[in-house]
Amino acid sequence: xxxxxxxxxxxxxxxxxxxxxxxxxxxxxxxxxxxxxxxxxxxxxxxxxxxxxxxxxxxxxxxxxxxxxxxxxxxxxxxxxxxxxxxxxxxxxxxxxxxxxxxxxxxxxxxxxxxxxxxxxxxxxxxxxxxxxxxxxxxxxxxxxxxxxxxxxxx
Length: 155
Hints:
Elements: E1 2-11, E2 16-19, H1 25-29, H2 35-42, E3 46-56, E4 63-72, H3 73-78, E5 83-92, E6 95-105, E7 111-112, H4 120-126, H5 130-140
Antiparallel strand pairs: 1-2, 1-3, 3-4, 4-5, 5-6, 6-7
């Protein structure tokens, strides 16, 4: 299952504005006649817009999260990505460990983390070796072109 969880944006004053679209950003776009124009208007002056997507790891309780940042609403519409990163979280409740899996800048190819220095106790508790989690990163990180108008939990 793939899903978008939220859009985070920062305005010019540096304040964060959180817009939670729930289960499906694709449904959000259906509310507009001309989504591109409406998005530019709704987020005028907003910068550093980040979408988070997730993909469940089959047969486990874990999911891989990918963040995609755009510099502005115009960049969201144009598909011009500023940066992307991918991670998995272990643990639960009030404390969790985030393990970075990779990142990409702009349109560059992603760089995956070697995971050699990942906390081995955490990995073994999760049921992964460093090599297995690195292989999972390559299949579950959602790097590359990102169009929030086409993403939903059903993809």
